[in-house]
C-alpha cells in the first residue's frame, strides 16, 4: 500500500509526516506554498527517500484551491505546465527526480469529470516529462486521459474522506465528509482497492492516520 500526502502547504507538520509516507504531493505556489517551502519540502523528501510529485492547482490562494474556476483547456494546460516546471527545476537543482503529478482540490475534482480539463492536464504532464506518473481519482476521466496520452497513471483513493455511493467524494460542505477516527480510515482501505492512498496533510489527524496506515502494512 503506497501512502501519499499533500505537503508544502504551510501546515507545519511536513517533517513529522515524512517517516510515514511514500509519496509527497508538493504545493507549487498557486493554492499554497512558495519557492522557499518547495525547496524545504524537496529537501525533506530527499532526506527521507520519499518520492516527489507536483501538486498543481487553480490560482486561488484565498480558497486554498478548493473553488472551481472557469478556464479554457489552453489556460489549464499553461497553468499546470508552469507549476510542474517550477517544481521540477527545484527538484533537479536539489539532485532529485520528480516522480508524479497530482492536481489539487477543485482542479483534481474537475479533471475527474471534465474530459477537456483532463486532457489539458495530461498533455501538460507529458510535455514536461513523459516519464511522470499522473495520479487521479479511481475510474475517472483524468486517469483515462493520462492513459490516452501514453502516461503511466496511478488510481488514487482517499483514506481520510468519505465516498458517495456513485464513487465520488462526499463534498466537504457536508457533515462527516472528512474522517476524524482512525478506525474509519482503516475500514476504508479495506473496502476500496487503489494503487495509492492519500492523506491530506492539512487535516488535523493527518499524522495519526499516516502512522496507523503504515502500521497496517
Question: Can you walk me through this structure?
Answer:
The chain has a single domain (3-216), classed as Alpha-Beta Barrel (TIM Barrel), CATH 3.20.20.370. The mean pLDDT is 96. The termini are close together. Strands 1-2-3-4-5-6-7 form a seven-stranded parallel barrel, surrounded by five helices. The protein is α/β, with parallel strands linked by helices. The protein contains eight helices and seven strands, in the order βαβαβαβααβαβαβα.
Short description:
This protein is α/β, with parallel strands linked by helices and 217 residues long. It is built from eight helices and seven strands, in the order βαβαβαβααβαβαβα. The protein has a single domain, classed as TIM Barrel, CATH 3.20.20.
Question: What is the strand and helix layout of this fold?
Answer:
Layout: E1 3-7, H1 14-17, E2 23-27, H2 35-48, E3 51-55, H3 73-93, E4 98-101, H4 105-113, H5 115-128, E5 133-137, H6 141-148, E6 152-158, H7 182-191, E7 196-199, H8 206-216
Parallel strand pairs: 1-2, 1-7, 2-3, 3-4, 4-5, 5-6, 6-7
Helix pairs in contact: 3-5, 4-5, 5-6
Summarize this structure as a short list of keywords or feature phrases:
217 residues, alpha/beta, TIM Barrel, seven-stranded parallel barrel, 7 strands, 42% helix, globular
Amino acid at each position: 500500500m503506497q501512502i501519499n500526502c499533500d505537503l508544502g502547504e504551510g501546515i507545519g507538520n511536513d517533517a513529522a509526516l515524512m517517516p510515514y509516507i511514500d509519496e509527497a504531493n508538493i504545493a507549487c505556489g498557486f493554492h499554497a506554498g512558495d519557492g522557499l517551502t518547495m525547496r524545504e519540502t524537496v529537501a525533506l523528501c530527499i532526506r527521507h527517500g520519499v518520492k516527489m510529485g507536483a501538486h498543481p492547482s487553480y490560482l486561488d490562494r484565498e480558497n486554498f484551491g478548493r473553488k472551481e474556476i472557469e478556464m479554457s483547456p489552453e489556460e489549464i494546460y499553461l497553468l499546470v505546465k508552469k507549476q510542474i516546471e517550477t517544481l521540477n527545476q527545484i527538484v533537479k537543482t536539489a539532485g532529485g527526480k520528480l516522480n508524479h503529478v497530482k492536481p489539487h482540490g477543485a482542479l483534481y475534482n474537475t479533471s475527474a469529470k471534465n474530459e477537456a480539463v483532463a486532457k489539458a492536464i495530461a498533455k501538460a504532464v507529458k510535455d514536461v516529462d513523459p516519464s511522470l506518473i499522473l495520479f487521479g481519482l479511481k475510474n475517472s476521466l483524468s486517469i483515462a486521459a493520462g492513459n490516452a496520452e501514453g502516461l503511466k497513471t496511478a488510481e488514487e483513493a482517499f483514506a481520510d474522506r468519505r465516498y458517495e455511493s456513485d464513487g465520488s467524494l462526499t463534498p466537504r460542505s457536508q457533515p462527516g465528509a472528512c474522517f476524524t477516527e482512525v478506525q474509519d480510515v482503516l475500514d476504508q482501505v479495506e473496502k476500496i482497492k487503489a494503487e495509492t492512498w492519500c492523506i491530506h496533510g492539512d487535516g488535523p489527524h493527518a499524522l495519526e492516520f499516516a502512522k496507523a496506515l503504515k502500521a497496517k502494512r
